[in-house]
Write a structure and sequence with these properties.
9 strands, three-stranded parallel β-sheet, alpha/beta, single chain, 238 residues, TIM Barrel
Length: 238
């Protein structure tokens, strides 16, 4: 099961066409994935990746088109990747509308390669989602280790975990494709038992929608059984 991918074409920096999305789904199925969540970005006001009615309608239309083209044996569900922003903390902003389809989980965008929009409110959004009876999943905490121009923050992942988030490691972080230090931090988090899920964060050729290589690399750190639990859906009860 892949909890994090950018299959919905033409709505963010993921797949840019239906054919692109089909190629990604085909590779995912061929490498062992049976369920994938398509999680387009929700990042107002960045690049108009907002949750406006018009954009959500476009996401729904494009998702329906790719779902119709999913290869046999691959289930595709809709979700979102929500960036922490101050207005997401308001009582009238319902985090439940962004949950992963068929679950009580909400995928949150984690740290980027450097300081970004959501950093100051990330922990508060974790607590806000928990207060609604939902469980936040924080994407790619290993990226925090790549920050070079800021004071080191070795306790970031631990703070997010203590606030109530599940932690989702990117396959591209573990393989080193995400840049300096992310692979070292990914292995540290695995060895410390802090990681709950591995997701592809698949966007295309740079980061395909596949988990097999990362699962095998994780197994070298924590063993076959533990690595399998990070990709088999058990963290979400699926």
């Amino acid at each position: 099961m892949d909890v994090h991918s950018h299959l919905v074409f033409g709505v963010d920096d993921g797949a840019q066409s239906l054919d692109d999305a089909v190629d990604l789904m085909t590779e995912a199925r061929a490498t062992g994935t049976r369920l994938v969540f398509a999680t387009p970005h929700i990042v107002p006001p960045y690049l108009q990746w907002d949750a406006s009615r018009a954009r959500l309608a476009r996401i729904q239309r494009n998702f329906a088109a790719l779902q119709a083209r999913a290869p046999a044996g691959l289930e595709v569900r809709l979700g979102f990747e929500v960036t922490a922003r101050p207005h997401r903390l308001r009582a009238d902003d319902d985090p439940g509308r962004f949950r992963l389809e068929g679950t009580e989980f909400v995928l949150m965008d984690g740290p980027q390669a450097g300081p970004w929009h959501g950093d100051s409110t990330m922990e508060r959004l974790v607590r806000r989602i928990r207060a609604e009876g939902l469980t936040p999943i924080l994407a790619h905490p290993e990226r925090r280790a790549s920050w070079r121009r800021e004071p080191p923050d070795p306790g970031f992942a631990e703070r997010m975990k203590n606030a109530g988030a599940l932690l989702q490691l990117d396959a591209s972080g573990l393989t080193g494709a995400d840049g300096p230090n992310t692979d070292v931090e990914a292995r540290r988090l695995l060895a410390a038992g802090l990681i709950d899920l591995i997701g592809s964060d698949g966007h295309g050729k740079r980061s395909p929608v596949r988990l097999d290589i990362a699962r095998d690399m994780a197994a070298a750190v924590i063993g076959e059984a533990a690595a399998t639990r990070l990709v088999d859906g058990s963290a979400l009860g699926l």
